[in-house]
Amino acid sequence: LTAIVIIGGVKSITKVTEKLIPFMAAFYVLGCLWVIFMNRSVLGQSIALIFKSAFNPMSAVGGFAGATVRNAIRYGIARGIYSNDAGTGYGMVAHAPAQTDHPVRQSSWGWGEVFADTIVICTITALLILLTDSYILYPEATSGQLTTIAAREAFGRWGSSFLAVS
What whole-number distance in Å separates Cα of residue 41 and Cα of residue 123? Predict the structure, then answer.
């Protein structure tokens, strides 16, 4: 199916993705919101943990260490680019073929996409990881693995399939 869509060119890719992506995103958001709702009794503690971990003295000491700063910058930029492509210039490529009555109207979608991905999707993903205690149960897991593990912890054996579909 992917080959058929790709062989069809940009117009084919656009037709499929403009219909498919909203459903995939909604599926993921609703799944994560369900996990958050089911764990609402500890939601406040998870949000507090985010701020406590970000602003404690140990984080500051680690942040000033040379290798840590380099790695924080490297992985922070990599995750930011992986997350929403902000600053890479790819957004222009994605929006350029759009049929629109005014370019400003089309470009106004760009900020909304970055906001939805960075604020909404990344926040609920962080809460999914925190609420399932996956970061404690699997401390050696990388970010992508940790999200898959958290989905599996939340949804049982169907968690990996949930994440793959969404």
Answer: 18
Query: Smallest Cα–Cα separation from 127: which of 10, 17, 70, 42?
Result: 42
Only one residue has tokens 């040379």, namely 66
Give how far the C-alpha of residue 26 lies from the chain's centroid of Cα atoms, to the nearest Å: 13
Q: Are 136 and 150 in contact (CB under 8 A)?
A: no
The string of DSSP letters for 75-106 reads HHHHHHHHHH-TTTSHHHHHHTT---S-HHHH
* Residue count of the chain: 166
CA atoms within 13 A on the CB side of 151: 22
For the record, the structure tokens of 157 come out as 């054996």
In order of 25, 30, 94, the CA distances from 129 in angstroms are 18, 15, 30
Name the pTM for this structure. 0.71
- Token look-up 């968690």 returns 159
Task: Give residues with Cβ within 8 angstroms of 87, minimum separation 6.
Answer: 80, 81
pLDDT tens string 20-61? 888 998 999 999 999 999 999 999 999 998 888 877 776 666
Helix ranges (DSSP H) in 9-166: 9-38, 43-54, 57-64, 66-84, 90-95, 103-115, 122-131, 134-137, 143-155, 159-165
